[in-house]
Protein: Peptide deformylase
Amino acid sequence: MITMKDIVREGHPSLTEVADEVDIPLNESDKQLIEDMLMFLKNSQDEEIAEKYQLRAGVGLAAPQLGLNKRLVAVHFEDPNGKHYSYGLVNPKIISHSVEKSYLSTGEGCLSVDRPVEGYVPRHARVTVKAFDKEGNPLKLRLKGYAAVVFQHEIDHLNGIMFYDHINQEQPFAVPENATPVE
Ligand SMILES: OCN(O)CCCc1ccccc1
Ligand code: NI
Structure:
């Protein structure tokens, strides 16, 4: 099972590199990897298992966070409106996005960052994501609100971008232009 020791931290090259697309259909090991990533997220959100294995709760995980430069992402969370998202995404791509921006009012964090980094992270308010699932079936997801934030955070990891790269260094809490807060 994946635990915190498998998650690389700031300074590891895979967090600032562009990851490679994976071949579809997935080979058995990439299929197992995406299943293990999803299981990590579920475990990290289970009070007993997280306590037992000292897991930090995560709503998403990207393969580069395991030191693997593959375009694989897992997300597992319920948004504030109670909508459930649980996906293993292969080669996810943002194919369109709103002009309008948004930002998580609490700021963001990252399992690969062992320190709080304050400030608003400007994101596209709405994104359309195309990807494949682990069986090679095409997916097209239209996302807004919290889900849009999470998916952008994860896809950024595939492009070597960390959430704090988006924060306004001069004024971290300056409200981004034309942006609405996501609670
Ligand atoms: O890359 C996953 N990650 O480091 C876990 C935290 C994910 C996350 C946290 C806040 C807002 C969006 C996404
Ligand atoms: Ni992250």
In short: Strands lie at 60-62, 72-78, 84-97, 101-104, 123-124, 126-132, 138-144, 179-182. The pocket of [hydroxy(3-phenylpropyl)amino]methanol (ligand 1) is lined by residues 58-62, 65, 104, 108-112, 149-150, 153-154, 157 (CB under 6 Å).
